[in-house]
Amino acid sequence: MAMRAAAAAAAARGGLGRRVFSTFNFAPPPNPAAAAAPPQAEPSTNLFVSGLNKRTTTDGLREAFSKFGEVAHARVVTDPVHGYSKGFGFVRYTTLDEAAEGIKGMDGKFLDGWVIFAEYARPRQPRPPPGENGAPPSPRY
Predict the structure, then answer these.
(1) Which domains does the chain have, with CATH numbers?
(2) If we measure between CA atoms, which residue out of 53, 42, 60, 127 comes closest to residue 88?
(3) SS3 for 132?
(4) Helix, strand, coil % over all residues of the chain, rounded to 5
(5) Cα gap 57→102, rounded to integer Å
(6) What is the DSSP letter of 120?
(7) Compositional bias of type Pro residues: which residue ranges (predicted)?
(8) With contact defined as beta carbons under 8 Å apart, do 99 and 69 qualify?
């Protein structure tokens, strides 16, 4: 209620017609995390697809990407408890050319109402054994 009263008072004073934005040029400081972005993955037949709708299925993913070549394997990663998509998946084509066409054809496009992103999959990084990441090892019962 107080916000409405303040807005009405500003309108009465003619305050809404004033410039709202500043002309000051502000440049945010450089972001060191953005500069250390991982390099592009090497071309492969395996694609990483992100931005998937929670209701996207493996069959739907396979069908969407099969327009650009022969899909050898498609998988939507799901939550084991609820069965819904975790929002990403993988598509494997039979050739590199088909994989490149799949990226070109589907990157930034809509699938099940959501914009998805397709890129070459990076190899999985090895996980450190428990206790070597600086945290104490979990107790064994």
Answers:
(1) 52-120 (3.30.70.330)
(2) 53
(3) coil
(4) 30, 20, 50
(5) 18
(6) E
(7) 126-141
(8) yes
**What's the pLDDT tens digit per position in 69-121?**
999 999 999 989 988 889 999 999 999 999 999 999 999 999 999 999 999 99
- Which residue bears the tokens 């934005």? 21
Residue 51 to residue 112: CA distance in whole angstroms? 11
Do 41 and 99 touch, CB atoms closer than 8 A?
A: no
The encoded tokens of residue 116 equal: 């998805």
Residue (of 113, 114, 109) closest to 67 by Cα position? 109
**Both structure tokens of 88:** 């990403």
Radius of gyration over alpha carbons of the chain, in Å? 24
Q: What counts of helices (H) and strands (E) characterise the chain?
A: 4, 6
